[in-house]
Amino acid sequence: MRKGFRLEDVRAMPVDELEAFMAILYPQKSKTTSCKSLRLNWRKWKKRHVRPASTSGTEA
Question: How far is CA 28 from the centre of its chain?
Fold first, then answer.
């Protein structure tokens, strides 16, 4: 399993995705969470909000 995020991946994100990424990784609450739980939260958000490219219907 890969740990962390590459800078290229973060820079390539659209604005709404980047805002969610920042809110999940750097919450405004004073509660401290582990890196593992932050990655899981990010994966859950991605599953809910990002459609896979294979379902776009543009393939031949």
Answer: 17
